Amino acid sequence: MIHTLLIGENDQIRQTLYETLAKRKHKVTVVEPATVDIENAIQNDFSLVIVSSVTDQTLGVCRQLRLSKNGSNFALVMVVDHNHPDQLDDILDAGADQCIIESIYDEKRLHIRLAFAEKMASEKVQQQITEQQLRESEARARSILETTVDAIITITPKGNIRTFNKTAEKLFGYHSTEVIGKNVKILMPNPYKAEHDDYMEHYLETGKRKIIGIGREVTGRRKDGSTFPMYLAVSEVKLPDQHIFTGIVRDISEQRRLEQEVLRISEHERQRIGQDLHDGLGQMLTGIGLITKNLARQLEQEEHKLAEDAAEISTLIQQADEQARSLARGLVPVEFDERGLEAALERLKNNAEKLFGIECTLEILGELDFDDVTQAIHLYRIAQEGVSNAVKHGSADKVSIYIASTDQHLRLRVVDNGTGFPENWDSEGGLGVRIMRFRARLIGGSLEISDIPDKGATITCTVPNIKQP
To answer: What is the 3-state secondary structure (H, E, C) of the chain?
Structure first.
């Protein structure tokens, strides 16, 4: 049932409208223009308002109704005197949705006009319901957005920030008004800041994803310039009138700190074991080797029948000594001297040529200087795994190791001429790739792998600000 407000003087036209509306099962409230209570009319939630005559007074009432807080929630129909077509402009100005002129005198045509008015009123009600649901939905979304424990940021395809919730403000140190409308690169340190636009353009042009739809760990930059590790999950939303990307960010600084501490202790134990092998077992084997060598020499001079066995024992002890020292060097790959990582990488290059029979080159640009030797060890292990992967899985016969250090970042790159990675390596990568990425994350960096089938692969580890001033 439609609730209709009928406004007009007590005349034949109003009576005709009332009777017709009653036949159409309307709930009709009839008032004269002078007695219309705007507040009461608003509270009654009429879905259809019909004015039976156009006067200055009824036009004024219509304007007030339209200006009320619910002024767009009802359909407004006015009956126009066919002798005064000049009233149309005033009627439109008062907010009328529909006019009835000659139809008032034709019952069938009046029913048709009212049927259209009912449809319009129904659409207005439905629109009101939809808008209310939309407002409630937006309110719920805002509530969730502002109270979630994760930072949530939305951006446009051009990288401009659209929304920035309270958790994001706390995490990055910016107020939302400081970043909305600006490029999301403001939240990134170099070199990721410079590479962001290339990532976005590459995805929009090719559809090939590097981060969108794939959660990963990256580095964020706060307002004060400090950086921190964060887990970032990016989703894409395409709507008829907009295209946005939503990023959910979680600070994993404490997780990384604990992982680094565990790995630091692990590396410390490796170094201790390596030192013990070198200084303990290695020294003992060296001493035993000298004794057995002298014994074998004496037995040989005496032409003793056990001279040959003694010589063999001496040889085996020497081999055991060499193996123990090799194990010690593997456990402590980066020496605690002024050359550090550079010396370890040179030895890695030489060993790769000897063990694998390949051509391996090493190029170092800039000064490699570390406050924490753990960083150097992680980079060495990544290079070591990269070379091993190139030979074992990529069948490469040429491998190049590049490492460059600047004031902003340090970048390690292993390039080979092998067969590259398998097609599904990103989703089903082996243990070696996962360990390399884990090591890169622990020192605040990132690992990127690119390859061209049958032309080789490139593994790049980039660590921002790893070089201390």
So the answer is: CCEEEEECCCCHHHHHHHHHHHHCCCEEEEECHHHCCHHHHHHCCCCEEEECCCCHHHHHHHHHHHHCCCCCCCEEEEECCCCCHHHHHHHHHCCCCEEECHHHHCHHHHHHHHHHHHHHHHHHHHHHHHHHHHHHHHHHHHHHHHHCCCEEEEECCCCEEEEECHHHHHHHCCCHHHHCCCEHHHHCCCCHHHHHHHHHHHHHHHCCCCCECCCEEEEEECCCCCEEEEEEEEEEEEECCEEEEEEEEEECHHHHHHHHHHHHHHHHHHHHHHHHHHHHHHHHHHHHHHHHHHHHHHHHHCCCCCHHHHHHHHHHHHHHHHHHHHHHHHHCCCCCCCCCHHHHHHHHHHHHHHHHCCEEEEEEECCCCCCCHHHHHHHHHHHHHHHHHHHHCCCCCEEEEEEEECCCEEEEEEEECCCCCCCCCCCCCCHHHHHHHHHHHHCCCEEEEEEECCCEEEEEEEEECCCCC
pLDDT at 419: 84
pLDDT, residue 331, reads: 67
Q: Is pLDDT of 145 > 70?
A: no
Could you give the percent of the chain with pLDDT greater than 90? 15
CB-count exposure of residue 278 (10 Å: 0-12, 13-18, 19+): middle
Q: In degrees, to the nearest 5, what angle opens at C-alpha 145 toward C-alphas 444 and 250?
A: 15
Domain 3-143, CATH: 3.40.50.2300
The topology under which CATH files domain 338-469 is: Heat Shock Protein 90 (3.30.565)
pLDDT reading at 333 higher than 90: no
pTM equals 0.45
**CATH superfamily of domain region 148-251:** PAS domain (3.30.450.20)
